[in-house]
């Protein structure tokens, strides 16, 4: 057996346990050792029984003088009661509902018990951790720092400690240290096997911290090496060299009803220069909500298509794809271009100033012959069935919806285009309104060049943001009514409702630390309830409609269009309106359960209003009175800048919660360390140094193997 052996080969594991381990993402032996604790219980204080004090956490060691099960009829519960004696005294210990304990612990045995000292007529230990003391054996669950792991039903921390303690000595020598010696030295890092041992069974907190430092370094380092290599690989490709046509772009920009901001000009210039090279661009256009990313993308797409190539624009949702399609056809109306819309459920084409619903096959054919020059769509665009004739530019909107894995998949799926003798690959432009904290920009987005739209178009008004207390709800409704009377429109956003789940209720572990988060959420239900309430009780006379992800694409589009065209007063919606949706006449956005959303997400919602000339408002409703929540909601009132908010969110809630329940596809340790800018920078430097010295890492075969394995672990393969 070796570290890669699947858990099925561990003879002592029953299939039931194997299944449970799989639930925790543990597939092989290595995974077991890499299942790290998230905290430690400090049971290291060993005390004589006679010196125990109420409420202290301590370990006692002594002999069992009596142990028995008592059945309490009233509560239908078993209580196991034991008396333990050392030279200084006797103490009672009780356990609830673990009658099988009397099979393990027997009178006369010497045991070690850890827990909090409580009071039941006399001092006692209630539900203490326990283990038998062996002559030369080391303690595992008591009398020391004890690891607490992410658990799942039927896999307790105690069981994990037991299994790790049993397996670790046999396989520790197989854990090969792939980190170059000079890096270990200069960074003051432990050997890998030592770190693994110490993270599970540390002697002191210092030891556990040293172990953690090494393991965090590894995760971040591997991500860095991966993105840097990815960047190198990408740049080895050949891309169409699209020369800058000054007259074309100048005329186009002058046709806008507004002046470009300096930031838009600069970003467009950076992009056009990238296109003018035969190395493929991989650039992120990052700009706050409303900073005007679409026109910048349109400039690039116009340049590409007028040079005889095709361009594609991908959006994360159908609504956004539809909106982009309409907007592009508007902006580009006088430029004689054919533009197609291709989503999972809808296909349309626009050419010679006319919209036409087309069959999917026909659109696909027109894309493959190059007749359609710009294609707007959802993910469906990068599916294998879509063949472009001469694709030179791919624009991905709202990039934060696409994690590391998706991005790598996108790059892999982009097909090379045979053009006579050369094979080319399109330029890639990603756009996001989600401000990325520096550490993320350096890790997950470390392979991208970045253009920043750090300036909003002139004359944008400030949106008045208020936290609404439950007693002010009525007032808020009256305010909304007045706004609608004046002809304005209103968004109401509902958070998702948690649907109770067996696993959740049976396991009283801190839920956010469970790896296998099996909670399911129902946003449709929340929207329907809110819609009923507003429609039947609060505003029976107003025109109210609802929008959620379960609607058919056609219905979604109609709902959005009706709202855009002023046929609806209030739109009740899930977070599907979060990104990009543009309705200038909407002046109020009311967010229910605001505490359930991330700051960056709330900021996105707020960006749905204030897009026209009218003063706009954002009302935050929250049921939670937790201090943290208030700090967060206050942050959004005081801070109008998405970048600052992002850093703040990271600070207050930690990276796990960043952007709501988004998954980044990163391991836990590195997620936790993303708040540390200095650390991330330092690791990036080390990775950069190594890659510069040895781009293919040929001198470091073990490291290469580890990167490959790491890619597999975060599903990049
Ligand atoms: P986002 O960056 O959030 O995607 P959009 O591209 O949707 O922003 O632009 C928001 C609105 O601002 C659009 O209606 C667009 O026409 C308008 N806009 C873009 N650039 C400017 C500008 N320089 N001055 C005024 N309005 C602009
Ligand atoms: Mg946008």
From TrEMBL:
Keywords assigned by UniProt, alphabetized: ATP-binding, DNA damage, DNA recombination, DNA repair, DNA-binding, Helicase, Hydrolase, Isomerase, Nucleotide-binding
SMART domains: DEXDc (SM00487), HELICc (SM00490)
Record has Hydrolase as a keyword: yes
Enzyme Commission number(s): 5.6.2.4
Family statement: Belongs to the helicase family. RecG subfamily.
Any one of the GO BP annotations: DNA recombination
InterPro entries on file: ATP-dep_DNA_helicase_RecG, DEAD/DEAH_box_helicase_dom, Helicase_ATP-bd, Helicase_C-like, NA-bd_OB-fold, P-loop_NTPase, RecG/Mfd, RecG_dom3_C
Statement: the UniProt record of this protein carries the keyword Hydrolase: yes
Name of the protein this chain belongs to: ATP-dependent DNA helicase RecG
Record-annotated Helicase ATP-binding domain positions: 274-453
Native source organism of the sequence: Candidatus Portnoybacteria bacterium RBG_19FT_COMBO_36_7
């Amino acid at each position: 057996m070796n570290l890669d052996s699947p858990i099925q080969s561990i003879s002592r594991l029953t299939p039931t346990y194997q299944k449970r381990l799989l639930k925790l993402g543990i597939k092989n032996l290595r995974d077991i050792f890499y299942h790290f604790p998230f905290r430690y219980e400090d049971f290291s204080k060993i005390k004589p029984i006679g010196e125990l004090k109420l409420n202290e956490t301590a370990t006692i060691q002594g002999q069992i003088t009596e142990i028995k099960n008592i059945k309490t009829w009233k509560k239908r519960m078993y209580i196991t009661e034991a008396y333990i004696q050392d030279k200084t005294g006797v103490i009672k210990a009780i356990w609830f509902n673990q009658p099988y304990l009397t099979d393990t612990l027997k009178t006369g045995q010497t045991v070690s018990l850890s827990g909090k000292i409580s009071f039941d007529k006399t001092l006692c230990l209630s539900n203490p951790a326990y283990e038998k003391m062996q002559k030369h054996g080391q303690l595992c669950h008591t009398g020391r720092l004890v690891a607490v792991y992410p658990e799942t039903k039927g896999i307790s921390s105690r069981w994990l400690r037991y299994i790790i303690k049993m397996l670790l000595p046999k396989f520790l020598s197989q854990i090969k240290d792939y980190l170059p010696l000079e890096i270990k030295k200069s960074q003051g890092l432990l050997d890998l096997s030592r770190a693994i041992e110490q993270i599970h069974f540390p002697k002191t907190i210092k030891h556990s911290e040293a172990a953690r430092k090494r393991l965090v370094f590894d995760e971040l380092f591997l991500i860095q090496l991966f993105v840097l290599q990815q960047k190198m690989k990408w740049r080895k490709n050949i891309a169409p060299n699209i020369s800058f046509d000054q007259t074309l772009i100048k005329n186009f920009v002058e046709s806008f009803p507004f002046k470009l901001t300096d930031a838009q000009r600069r970003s467009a210039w950076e992009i056009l220069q990238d296109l003018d090279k035969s190395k493929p661009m991989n650039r992120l256009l990052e700009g706050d909500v409303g900073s005007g990313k679409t026109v910048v993308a349109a400039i690039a797409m116009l340049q590409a298509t007028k040079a005889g190539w095709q361009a594609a624009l991908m959006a994360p949702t159908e609504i956004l794809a539809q909106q982009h399609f309409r907007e592009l056809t508007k902006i580009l109306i006088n430029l004689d271009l054919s533009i197609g819309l291709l989503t999972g459920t809808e296909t349309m084409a626009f050419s010679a100033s006319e919209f036409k619903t087309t069959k999917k096959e026909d659109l696909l054919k027109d894309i493959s012959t190059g007749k359609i020059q710009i294609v707007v769509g959802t993910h469906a665009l990068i599916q294998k069935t879509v063949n472009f004739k001469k694709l030179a530019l791919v624009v991905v909107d709202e990039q934060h919806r696409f994690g590391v894995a998706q991005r790598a998949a996108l790059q892999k799926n982009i097909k090379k285009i045979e053009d006579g003798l050369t094979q080319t690959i399109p330029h890639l432009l990603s756009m996001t309104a989600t401000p990325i904290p520096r550490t993320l920009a350096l890790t997950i987005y470390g392979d991208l060049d970045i253009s920043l739209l750090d300036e909003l178009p002139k004359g944008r008004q400030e949106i008045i943001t208020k936290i609404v207390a439950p007693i002010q709800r009525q007032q808020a409704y009256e305010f909304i009514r007045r706004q609608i009377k004046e002809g304005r429109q209103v968004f109401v956003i509902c958070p998702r409702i948690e649907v109770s789940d067996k696993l959740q209720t049976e396991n009283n572990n801190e839920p956010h630390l469970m790896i296998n988060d099996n909670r399911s959420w129902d946003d449709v239900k929340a929207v329907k309830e809110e819609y009923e309430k507003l429609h039947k009780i609060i505003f029976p006379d107003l025109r109210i409609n609802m929008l959620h992800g379960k609607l058919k694409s056609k219905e979604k589009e109609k709902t959005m269009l009706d709202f855009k065209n002023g046929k609806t007063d209030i739109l009740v919606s899930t977070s599907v309106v979060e990104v990009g949706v543009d309705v200038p006449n909407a002046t109020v956005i009311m967010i229910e359960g605001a505490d359930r959303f991330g700051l960056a997400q709330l900021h996105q919602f707020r960006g749905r209003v204030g897009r026209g000339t009218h003063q706009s408002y954002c009302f935050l409703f929250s049921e939670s009175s937790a201090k943290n929540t208030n700090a967060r909601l206050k942050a959004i009132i005081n801070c109008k800048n998405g970048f600052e908010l992002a850093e703040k969110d990271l600070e207050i809630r930690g990276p796990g919660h960043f952007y709501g329940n988004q998954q980044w596809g990163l391991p836990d340790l590195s997620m936790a360390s993303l708040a540390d800018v200095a650390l991330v920078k330092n690791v990036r430097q080390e990775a950069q140094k190594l890659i510069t010295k040895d781009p293919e890492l040929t001198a470091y075969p073990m490291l290469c193997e580890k990167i490959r394995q790491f890619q597999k672990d975060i599903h990049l393969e």
